[in-house]
Amino acid sequence: MLNAAALNMKTTTAPQRKLLSGDEAVARGAWEAGLKVAASYPGTPATEILEALALYSEVDAQWSVNEKVAFEVAYGAALGGARSLMACKHVGLNVAMDPLMTAAYTGINAGLVVVVADDPGLHSSQNEQDTRWVSRYAKLPLVEPADPAEAREYVQAAFEISEQFDTPVLLRLTTRVAHSKQDVAVGTRAVQPNRPFQRDAVKYVMVPAHAAARHRAVEERLVRLRAFAEKTPLNRVELRDRALGFVTAGVAYLYIRETFPEASVLKLGFSYPFCDQKIRDFARLVNELVVVEELDPFLEDHLRGLGLTFKARHPSFQLGELRPEHLPAIVRGEAKPAKPFPARRPVLCSGCAHRAVFSVLRDLQLTVTGDIGCYTLGAAPPLASVHTCLCMGAGFTVHEGLRRALPGDRRIVGVMGDSTFIHSGITGLINAVYNRMPGVLLILDNATTAMTGAQPHPATGRTLRDEPTRTLVLEDLCRACGAEHVDVVDAKDTAALKQLLQQRLEERALTVIIARSPCWQLVRTKAGAPEFKPELCQACYECLEIDCPAISKSEDGLIKIDTARCTGCNLCVERCAYEALIPRRA
Amino acid sequence: MGVGGCATGARQWIWTGKIMSAQRVVNILFCGVGGQGVLKAAEIAGLVALRAGYAVRKSEVHGMSQRGGSVESHVRFGPAVHSPLIPEGAADFVVCFDAAEGAKYRHMLKKDGVHFGPFLPLVRQQGIEPRYENTFFLGLLSRYLPLPRDAWLHALEQAFPRAQAENRRCFLLGAEMDAGRLKAEDRILQSFAGGSYALFACFVVNNLIFILSSVAVR
Question: Model confidence over A223-254: pLDDT tens digits?
Fold first, then answer.
């Protein structure tokens, strides 16, 4: 075709440009840098890094069981001499903190880059932590790109820094870097030979005597990294009008360029350890110095420590996301403008089996300790049947704690998803068995990691690259952990689930109920929408209590079904006491 | 070959009207509810702009918000673009797939920008299936943008390997819709005081080029 030919001609004459997200650009840059091993557990907004890496056959890429495992696999590969990468969301790095803190001591062999994506504004997260502090805490260098083009470049620089200074390097993204796209000029892959693994107990076996010596090495490395920070082009001064000068890092740089195109900027791409001299010099060059960052006062605190006079953000800017239109308010020292409108609340998809389970838990008026996943959406009214959600794996352990505080209360159940159970719920189950805690724990098994976009996990029998692998059988695992009863039910069979729950709640045993039904997004089966008989409807709205997006109140005060969204699961039919909803038989 | 080459072709018919000039950044905000194809539409618009030789930035949010929640995506293109987010009050277009969501983003629209809210009833009027709503709106959007028709069609083919014919039909329905039948169009044309002649000229050129290029393709 003529058009395609013309486009191809263009791509061969100019450097190749692709529209890449920050996540895809990290993957591309790492591949170009000769990346050999990559590991991650899905988490928004970092999920697409491994999904993109899976497309490069030269990279040994995996979904790990959790972030701690992912980090250790990547660390081991780095010791083995292969450039390696671990990726996760901010709270995922918390799971990997134990090995990360000590890996800072041992150092690595070949380059190890830890990509961590923060989520200012909590688009899809349980907290709004600022992971830049981890670099100070773990004494690791921190690299922060502002956009996908920089993400591609900086991940390559991060591998160089990692090997030059024998340290893991943190590459920090935020949602607007990870999930924004940009035309990026890409390059080719350059592979380094593996660096041989040298047995060196003093360096790699962290017992007290060795670790004390390595602590010294870490502090000495920080001194060398500070000198590097002064010289590296990752920290760049852009001198324009000297009336106003900004110190910034990450995506905030782009908002400054958008709003104050004439202002001077010190853009920190290597943002820890700090380039103190460069910051002082820049402060001297401009009349008014303004520090702009997203979330915590990481830069502000340091500049205060340097004794510099500058304008800091109003404290209200420590909450939520930064946007380009906020910049004038920051410069004027004003508070953050209120969000103009509330976002529409997310709901479980129509046809979702979690809805059936939560409708039962709601009817039984149980206290539910929940977990992280789509099913956290069961917390919102009208379902309102998830009462705690803390972190990955806490559904079972918080259940145990709650029951220990309320020994007579048997109406508490713990709930988590299949992927979450494998991630970090197994230990909670073993703990309950070991410490003789009776109760009912539910695994909502939808055969995928749904919230992050349907990634496989050990119980699906497929790998990141969709290769077949040994399938983890959840019921066998729960029995092996010592659960007295392991029941498997169809998650959509509300009558059976209700009866089983009532029975098990009365027993003084530890029961695991696996409520199984594949995620609707995987199967996408549709049956006809139920028939609505308005003449029988008593407007009790019981059918709306299941929070289904396909059924709503109509203008005439009754209800209406959106046939385009209805999947024909008939959960609403079950709730109608007046036979105003009639299931349609295929 | 002149009209067929997307990279060079784009430059030939950059609109001189108020909205379109290659000298500044064009801002498009797509919004709707999870599952409506908001992100896909934005992706296609971004790819077309890239193929036409512009610098492109695009921003969106994945994850929880996609479960039936609000979805927005910003697409910006021009000679050089900085922020991936459109600043408040700077959107040239608010392309909404849902009336309530569209209304929420009025503050993002420029004074003389185009809000697609009034176009929403067209979907039903034209008998377009909900899943092709995004392609239809891309067709409507394409009328305003300095991006070649064949680059749009190429991107649609790439984005929707299945149902290519129907996607193409819905896109062209939007792109070719008779301005007389498009009631809201009158209001919009008036709002471009001074630019309407250029706009009209572009419609003519646009259609001519389409006819020529489709002959060339066959």
Answer: 999 999 999 999 999 999 999 999 999 999 99
State residue A429 phi and psi, 5-degree precision: -65, -45
- Cβ atoms of residues A239 and A165 within 8 Å: no
Contact A58/A31 with Cβ under 8 angstroms? yes
Cβ of residue A339 closer than 8 Å to a chain B Cβ? no
Share of chain A above pLDDT 90, in %: 93
Residue in chain A closest to B61 (alpha carbons) equals A179
| Residue with tokens 């605190």, as numbered in its chain | A301
**Does the beta-carbon distance from A259 to B213 stay under 8 Å?**
no
**Cβ(A68)–Cβ(A95) under 8 Å?**
yes
Phi and psi at A572, nearest 5°, equal -70, -35
Measured CA to CA, the distance from residue B171 to residue A402 in angstroms comes to 57
B102 token code pair: 């569209």
Q: Exposure pattern of A296-333 as b/e (b: 16+ CB <10 Å)? A: ebbbbebbeeeebebbbbeeebbebbbbbbbbebbbee
The distance from CA A361 to its chain's CA centroid, rounded to whole angstroms, is 28
pLDDT in tens, B112-137: 899 999 999 998 888 898 889 999 99
The CATH class that applies to domain B20-217 reads alpha beta
| Average pLDDT rounded to a whole number, residues A185-196 | 95
Three-class SS state of B66: helix
Q: For tokens 């593996």, name the residue.
A: A194
Whole-number Å distance between alpha carbons of B53 and B82: 16
Length of chain B in terms of residues written: 218
Q: Tell me the residue type at A481.
A: C
Q: What are the tens digits of pLDDT across the range B179-200?
A: 665 554 444 443 433 333 344 4
Token duo for residue A68: 């701690």
In chain B, positions 111-170, which contact chain A (CB-CB < 8 Å)? 130, 150-151, 154
| The model's pTM | 0.90
Tell whether A6 lies on the interface with B, counting CB pairs under 8 A.
yes
Test A6 with B101 for CB contact under 8 angstroms: no
Query: How close A49 gets to chain B, by Cα (Å)?
Result: 13
A229-233 contacts, C-beta under 8 A, 24 or more apart: A229/A270, A229/A273, A229/A274, A229/A275, A229/A278, A230/A275, A230/A276, A230/A277, A230/A278, A232/A157, A232/A269, A232/A270, A232/A275
Sheet containing strand A17-21, edge to edge, reads A17-21, A180-185, B55-60, B70-78, B26-33, B91-96, B109-115
Q: How far is CA B56 from CA A184, A343, A464, B7, B149, in A?
A: 9, 26, 30, 14, 18
> Which alpha helices (H) appear in A33-147, and where do they start and end?
47-53, 67-79, 90-95, 97-106, 132-138
Q: Which two tokens stand for residue A348?
A: 């479980």
